[in-house]
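Please check both lines for our workbook:

___
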Amino acid sequence: MERTQHIAVEGLPQVGRLGERLQSYNVEMVEIIGGRFWKPYGARNGAEVPDSRADTTPTGMDPSLYRYRPPIDLSNERLRKLAAALGPAYVRVSGTWANTVYFHDSDDPPPSRPPQGFGGVLTRDQWRGVIDFAASVGGELVTSVATGTGVRHRDGAWTSDQAQAVVDYTTEVGGRIAATEFMNEPTYAAMGGAPPGYDAAAYGRDVRIFRDFLARAAPGALFLGPGSVGEGGSLPVSLGGAELLSSEDLLAASGPVFDVFSYHFYGAVSERMRAAGPEAQTSADAALSAGWLSRTDLVHTYYAELRDRFLPGKPMWLTETAEAAAGGNPWAATFTDTFRYLYQLGSLARSGVQVIMHNTLASSDYGLLDEDTFSPRPNYWAALLWRSLMGNSVLDPGPSPSSDLHLFAHDLRGGSNGVALLVINGDQAESYTLEIDRAVKRYTLSAPRRSDRSVELNGQELALTAGGGLPQLAGARHPAGPLTVGPRTITFLTTAP
């Protein structure tokens, strides 16, 4: 059975406007310094940490969930080439490990162990590598600062010495911090290394101190916050033994100090964290369902209501998101997750979210690129198509005939006055016919099996060229009239005058 939906491309109403960096990504601080990050499925337990400066298991978490990685090579030619193709973007270097990292502000050899109160060591060379990488790929740098027990007065208040050193060195080598959060995920403050008993009142005190510091030290940087996660029904109220602090309480304690309302979203925790309980997890069978895809909308609604109450009129950024927390499920690296990836971009852009930072660019199962080879995964190819085709004006394509067919529309990137449609068919069996009143180019993503780690564009597998370059993403011409989208496919359609 097929259902038909008429789409009159001419004159679709504009419902929003985006900046150039909607589609952005994270490189975790632990990737920069080296250390234990989420162990890929099927990997053996890693050897003992070869460098005590990188013993970075988060507070209260099971060390067996992690595997040691040496520092990522941000100078790698393939990594830079593939990241640049997604630019311009924000490059966020943060994560739980950033909360307790010590910046060794010297060209002398770093200490053999981090100072008391810190969990890892960031060197000047490593941070300069971050700055060079961002500059080379069209990135603007986003970060957060150390907030653990190593940067505290005796009374518990946050101190700015470490943050000042990072800002000064960034400027010294020609970089710029475009935006920063204070603490990564303060709703799980204890897991992130906050002092014992840390609460909303302490957070409010600290962010006001940080706001004054930021205005002096980096007056052009946007202050993002609170950067919360876990609310709106997506994650358990206790994770790694850390009870959830309420964003409502955090915002009430801090006051209207933020330039941008930021939050994080994971629809579930991965299979690695079975101890969190089955209600906190999902399955591959549910990964294309309307209920799973729309979790990003439910959590956005939750945080948008808080934004409207505490920071009315401020933009919203989603500064960390992926298929599931704790490194992603086994299918995060497959075509199965591409439906979520693109649905999230389309739906949140329509809701007015200005920036969406995928976690990660190239680490663990949810990375856009394989961490060992930097080869593209299906979500990378989806990201490249979005970057190539979807412009910054958000349009309304009209209603969908089914809860399993998701329609999104933007202007066509490149200023040609065309339109780009994104059609996501999550139905496992049903095709849909679109009656398009204009000739289009068609770009259909599919795979023989949803579990495939490769993806086809119009029936041809996408892969790097023999020389490691990107292939041409060519659309297939289709005349005005009926156009069928098959089950479990994703299709971009573009028009031109």
User: Anything to note?
Assistant: Residues 3 and 402 are 9 Å apart (CA to CA). The chain has two domains: 2-15+394-494, 19-392.
